[in-house]
Design a protein that fits this description.
Blueprint lengths: L6 E5 L2 H4 L12 H4 L2 H4 L2 H6 L1 H16 L5 H12 L4 E5 L5 H5 L4 E3 L2 E8 L5 E3 L18 E5 L9 H10 L2 E5 L11 H7 L3 E6 L11 E4 L2 H12 L3
Parallel strand pairs: 1-2, 1-7, 2-3, 7-8, 8-9
Antiparallel strand pairs: 4-5, 4-6
Helix pairs in contact: 6-10
Bound molecules: 2'-O-acetyl adenosine-5-diphosphoribose (OAD).
2'-O-acetyl adenosine-5-diphosphoribose binds next to helix 1.
Amino acid sequence: MADMRNIVILTGAGISAESGIDTFRDAGGLWEQHKVEDVATPEAFERDPDLVLRFYDMRREAIQAKQPNAAHEALAKLDAAWDGELLIVTQNVDDLHERAGASRVLHMHGTHLNAWCTACDMRTKWTGPMLDRPACPECGERALRPDVVWFGEMPYEMDRIYASLRKADLFVSIGTSGAVYPAAGFVQEAREMRVRTLELNLEASMGSRWFHESRHGPATQLVPQWVDEMLGG
Ligand code: OAD
């Protein structure tokens, strides 16, 4: 991988699993505990806002008690040391990449730690609950919602992601099942653009066959190993 300069890294719930945050589709995962259509769609929010806000209040509180693991830390180390372009595109709504020290991070599915005011469109850092309908610090309306992308909504910053993929020499996918588009399609787009592709996942994913190389194991082992390879350590 010595000739690699520009890197796009896609991360999913698997990278935060060893920090104690449930994934979505593994046994006992979040989508076994809750129905997507009850808590993660704009229709659900319209139908039963209390249920949706309570679900996200719980998740927001839970992630703040978790800590980054060795995989987040290794990516932060790569981010700090890498001279070429690098973008960590995460589907995760936790802030563990940032807390590990990474700065080139894009949250394509939003973040638990932002509130989005549907009245004035402002986004504000938010760590507390929303169930009690707090006022927007900007406009005063009680119209805040979690700044997360729900099913049926458009993920954030797709133009920037595709622009980075076009310039990439290497695309690496970490801890994601390949079940949710558009992220699941990045590997195919990368292949079409002749970008080298590598998957690091606990087990074979739905997209494994698209990758030039697929390594299986826990992120806390695979990611530090791969980062050491990249940094020549
Ligand atoms: P999933 O729950 O679909 O997949 C998690 C993947 O991580 C699986 O392939 C696991 O095998 C793998 N995994 C589990 N533990 C791991 C570990 N310790 N090390 C490495 N890999 C591990 O989660 P995502 O692919 O992130 O979207 O899900 C994608 C999107 O679906 C989420 O962003 C969310 C969800 O619905 C929205 O809410 C819009």
